[in-house]
Amino acid sequence: MNEKDIIPQNYVKNLFDLTGRVAVITGAGSGLGAAISVGFSQLGVTTILADVDKLAAEKTYRSIKRQNGKAFISHLDVTSREECFRLADEVVKDYGKVDILVNSAGSAFRCPAEDFPEDKLDYILNLNLKGTYFCCQAFGKKMLQRKKGSIINMASIGSFNAYPLASAYLASKGGVLQITRSFALEWRTRGVRVNGIGPTLMESPLTAKAAKSTSETADFIKARMLRPRLGLPEELIGTAVFLASDASQLVTGEIVMCDDGYLKA
Ligand SMILES: NC(=O)c1ccc[n+]([C@@H]2O[C@H](COP(=O)([O-])OP(=O)(O)OC[C@H]3O[C@@H](n4cnc5c(N)ncnc54)[C@H](O)[C@@H]3O)[C@@H](O)[C@H]2O)c1
User: Can you spell out the DSSP letters for 11-26?
Assistant: First the structure.
């Protein structure tokens, strides 16, 4: 009697296979977005490097090209809804589809809450919160048309916990958590999954100054870390691959914490 395989051959290999997928990565010119872009390209993903900073995007592009990966640069200011929708149209026209969106464009500004300037508040909320929202809308619509896609939003330990001098950033990342949950809920039966990654304090240009020097914000976070070590951008790639791939097909509306246990301490 021929017994049926419990799991078909190559099932797991196929689960993680991203060959031929098309990914748009915002903030791909620096830090976490750059690392995830190069990581995806190593798995045969066509990466669209979407950044407001052309020179930064070119650096990521050269790195991918040196490794014979597929990459294209697209200027994008995520705070413009119009630009987000225009890029989504262009990507589908030029590459046929969009399988993966990583929302990594973001920034921070430190200031006591009572004195937080309105222009900086607008800047952080427009970039981190509305930028993520617009991209989810624009690229999510394309994914809904094909009933297939995975969106990965860059959340933070600040989506759940507070730390000093970062009230606008914390408000924006709390919002990213709820964008992730609400879009995931509305699209849960329509083939598009929306998740997030919640990094600890990472080594990246964004935090280089605050994390290495003594600062109230960094010291507060470091005092609560289980071990005093910043995360490295490349340490997020495995989680991004998992969330982008069919391996995470039952996972949606979730923030996968890559925080070295910070929230559990
Ligand atoms: N670095 C950390 O410790 C850390 C921790 C948790 C979460 N995050 C989040 O991860 C994301 C990436 O952080 P990072 O450390 O890589 O930052 P980074 O400053 O190194 O990179 C951010 C990138 O976003 C781009 N960008 C800025 N404004 C833009 C706009 N309007 N449109 C398009 N692109 C724009 C920048 O040009 C830059 O290339 C952010 O959302 C950040 O909040 C970072």
Answer: HHHHHT--TT-EEEEE
CA-nearest residue, atom 42 of ligand 1: 106
Pick left, alpha or beta for residue 147 (phi over 0 → left; psi -120 to 50 → alpha; otherwise beta): left
Residues in the chain where the model's pLDDT stays below 70: 209-214
Q: Are 139 and 151 in contact (CB under 8 A)?
A: yes
For residue 23, which of 51, 52, 48 has the smallest C-alpha distance?
48
Report the alpha-carbon distance of residue 126 to residue 130 in Å, rounded.
5
Give the chain's domains with CATH numbers: 19-259 (3.40.50.720)
pTM of the model: 0.98
Composition of the chain by helix, strand, coil, percent to 5: 50, 15, 35
For residue 56 and ligand 1, the question of a CB distance below 6 A is answered with yes
pLDDT in tens, 111-144: 999 999 999 999 999 999 999 999 999 999 999 9
Amino acid identity for residue 238 in this structure: G
Atom of ligand 1 nearest to the CA of 172: 43
**In a 10 Å sphere around its CB, with 0-12 CB exposed, 13-18 middle and 19+ buried, how is residue 150 labelled?**
buried
The closest of 14, 9, 36 to 25, measured between CA atoms, is: 36
